[in-house]
């Protein structure tokens, strides 16, 4: 099985578990607080301007909202830069982690068996971890305070 040489130094299963935890448990909370929806992931018109504020908003609330939007945009950019070749990593992330479909439904939809899906899921999650590290340090995101998902061997 082909995978990035860089991942020879990382524990792929633990790295994949960290990304899975983030995308399935933490990311829905971030989306909610950023006032975004899962369908906004592929939207090119995203920006970091709060969608609504009221007269009593405090600076901290606005800054928190902007931070949540920044994390959301970082995830969206990471997703957009993922491979979508024959391995279908982007689709696997979308269907399993973001839409939370069960693995039988996803394997049927992608036309692969569940054991192949399980292997590709680890690859997809590891690619996400690697690309997220790049995206979170970009000047438009500046969310490098988020811990690294990758776990050394």
Explained architecture:
It is a single chain. With 153 residues, this protein is mostly helical. It contains 5 helices and no strands. It has helices at residues 12-33, 59-80, 89-98, 103-110, 114-135. The two termini are 19 Å apart. Mean pLDDT is 85; it is low at 46-56.
Principal-axis shape: globular
Whole-number average pLDDT?
85
What pattern of helices and strands is seen along the backbone?
HHHHH
Please report the distance between the alpha carbons of the first and last residues: 19 Å
Strand fraction equals under 5%
The main β sheet shows up as: none
How many helical elements? Answer: 5
How many whole angstroms does the radius of gyration measure?
Answer: 16 Å
Helix content: 40-55%
What is the tally of beta strands?
Answer: 0
* Unreliable sequence segments: 46-56
Query: Structural class of the secondary structure composition?
Result: mainly alpha
Protein traits:
153 residues; mainly alpha; 5 helices; 0% strand; globular
Could you provide a short overview of the structure?
With 153 residues, the chain is mostly helical. Helices cover 55% and strands 0% of the residues.
Give the topology:
Blueprint: H1 12-33, H2 59-80, H3 89-98, H4 103-110, H5 114-135
Helix pairs in contact: 1-2, 1-5, 2-5, 3-5, 4-5
């Amino acid at each position: 099985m082909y995978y990035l040489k860089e991942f020879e130094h990382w524990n792929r299963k633990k790295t994949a578990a960290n990304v899975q935890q983030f995308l399935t448990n933490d990311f829905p909370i971030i989306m909610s607080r950023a006032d975004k929806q899962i369908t906004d992931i592929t939207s090119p018109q995203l920006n970091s301007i709060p969608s609504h504020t009221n007269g009593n908003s405090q600076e901290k609330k606005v800054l928190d909202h902007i931070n949540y939007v920044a994390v959301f945009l970082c995830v969206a950019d990471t997703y957009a830069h993922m491979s979508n070749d024959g391995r279908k990593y982007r689709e696997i992330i979308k269907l399993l982690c973001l839409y939370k479909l069960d693995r039988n439904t996803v394997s049927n939809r992608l036309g692969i068996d569940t054991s192949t899906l399980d292997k590709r899921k680890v690859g997809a999650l590891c690619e996400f971890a690697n690309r997220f590290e790049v995206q979170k340090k970009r000047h438009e995101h500046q969310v490098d305070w988020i811990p690294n998902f990758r776990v050394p061997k």
